[in-house]
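Practice problem 4.
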């Protein structure tokens, strides 16, 4: 599938610990050091790694390339790893075994991986390293910290992604106002400014790219992608959100205005493959039910 300036690919960069279950190896590295880790990986380079927390998401993203409409943007996943190319051979063997269409990778032998995110043109970065995630966000790339775990059982073939609103899709001004002035004052302010679009947050660019990909496929029950906004906002603060998405010409299939209810059970009902939120409290609730990525952005993470 050819790419043009008007049809750029959707590129996701991911680290090995988010893609595969490497926690035993990582524990060995932290306990006994780099040489013990290297010897361990080389001695087991033909042992296939089990899927990690973001594996189902990656598999579904790459599956969108199979039989996609001609006008659909191509999806590419880039592997970024602090392994050396030598110790990383086990990772590539596992990629090939699981038949993942990942062909580009960077192995940095312990150096930071985040400087390579932008040269690859990635719109999203997923990592188990909070510092790398923060550096990516500082450089204008949507990024989230994924707490490593084994992959959850896949519920359907449809890709389902859920987003928080303030400080993720939108800027954090609303959250700041609510903290400083209180919830009632926040509601009045949002109602008075309902026709003024909200500023974009760190995930606006990724949402735009995902929407462009989604729009290339048919809608309805057979659509391969479904998205949701899952926010603590409630009426009357809902209207500004709806009008903002309308002004951006971005489609979200579902919008849940929860008014502070725990998000986890709702995300399970939606069947999210991943959920992005700036609040660690919401992430703790969500990850009991679905894969969740913490976005360390905005006043909640000052």
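Answer key:
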């Amino acid at each position: 599938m050819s790419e043009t300036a008007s049809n750029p690919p959707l590129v996701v960069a991911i680290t090995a610990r988010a893609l595969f279950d490497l926690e035993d190896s990582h524990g060995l590295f932290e306990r006994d050091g780099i040489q013990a880790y290297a010897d361990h990986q080389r001695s087991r380079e033909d042992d296939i790694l089990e899927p990690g927390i973001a594996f189902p998401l990656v598999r579904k993203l790459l599956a969108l390339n199979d039989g996609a409409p001609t006008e659909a943007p191509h999806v590419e996943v880039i592997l970024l790893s602090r392994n050396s190319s030598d110790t990383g051979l086990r990772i590539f063997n596992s990629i090939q075994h699981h038949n993942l269409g990942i062909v580009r990778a960077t192995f940095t032998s312990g150096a930071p991986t985040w400087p390579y995110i932008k040269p690859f043109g990635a719109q999203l970065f997923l990592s188990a390293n909070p510092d790398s995630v923060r550096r990516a966000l500082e450089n204008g790339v949507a990024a989230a910290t994924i707490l490593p775990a084994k992959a959850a059982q896949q519920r359907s073939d449809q890709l389902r992604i859920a987003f928080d609103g303030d400080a993720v899709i939108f800027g954090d001004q609303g959250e700041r106002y609510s903290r400083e002035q209180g919830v009632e004052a926040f509601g009045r302010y949002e109602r008075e400014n309902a026709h003024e679009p909200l500023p974009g947050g760190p995930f606006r660019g990724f949402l735009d790219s995902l929407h462009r990909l989604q729009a290339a496929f048919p809608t309805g029950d057979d659509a391969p992608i479904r998205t949701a906004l899952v926010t603590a906002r409630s009426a009357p603060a809902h209207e500004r959100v709806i009008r903002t998405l309308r002004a951006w010409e971005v489609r979200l299939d579902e919008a849940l205005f929860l008014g502070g209810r725990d998000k986890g059970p709702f995300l399970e009902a939606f069947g999210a493959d991943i959920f992005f939120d700036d609040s660690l409290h919401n992430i703790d609730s969500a990850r009991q039910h679905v894969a969740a990525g913490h976005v360390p952005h905005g006043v909640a993470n000052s």
